[in-house]
């Protein structure tokens, strides 16, 4: 831990850098760039204005044959194992996916089929999704949240959805969605800050 002492007269001031929240995005979109990651980028931009973060991303559609051909965890390649452990060890997991035929893509589900059953227990998980219209927002509560309930994850009550009309290409323009993201993250930032502090204490 780095401590910087600054002399102000006779009273030393000790500054301890705030612990960084290790954020891992599991991206379930097959497109690059994508509206899904456009939504996530806005979430991350707001989050980094609120507390220090360190971001990593797992693109499930780019994990290769060592992922798509694996039936059990023992079958994956070392690169895929690293991606799985990255998600399992995150302070905050952002699970992001587009809606295909009323649910998340199969590759997105396959990634979590390979995650250890209790690795996400009590882990904060933020859900994000994109779809063709507002009715697709139901995927958050009816498909994604039950998936992470199986893992006993701490799914954050606020979740974010944006429809195709909210974007110009892959850039999220709708100010109402921007506002929901800002307000939603403000409501849970204390929880996330505590999570980062707790993880830092355990690693010290």
Written account of the structure:
This protein has 204 residues and is an alpha/beta fold. It contains six helices and ten strands, in the order E-E-E-H-E-H-H-E-H-E-H-E-E-E-E-H. The protein has one domain (21-199): Flavodoxin domain (Rossmann fold). The protein is 39% helix and 24% strand. The strands form three sheets. Strands 3, 4, 5, 6, 7 and 8 form a six-stranded parallel β-sheet that branches. Helix 1 (35-48) packs across helix 6. The longest helix has 29 residues, at 175-203. It is globular.
Please give the share of residues in helix: 25-40%
Question: What sequence of helices (H) and strands (E) makes up the elements?
Answer: EEEHEHHEHEHEEEEH
Number of helices: 6
Rough outline: globular
Termini separation: 8 Å
CATH class: Alpha Beta
Name the CATH homologous superfamily. Flavodoxin domain
Q: From the 3D structure, determine the CATH topology.
A: Rossmann fold
Q: Could you give a short account of the major beta sheet?
A: 6 strands, parallel
Number of strands: 10
Beta-strand content estimate: 15-25%
**Class of secondary structure makeup:** alpha/beta
CATH-level-2 architecture: 3-Layer(aba) Sandwich
Overall tally of domains: 1
Rg calc: 18 Å
Mean of pLDDT: 90
Extract low-pLDDT stretches: 1-12
Organism: Actinomadura napierensis
Protein name: FMN reductase
Pfam family, one: FMN_red
Keywords: Flavoprotein, FMN, Oxidoreductase
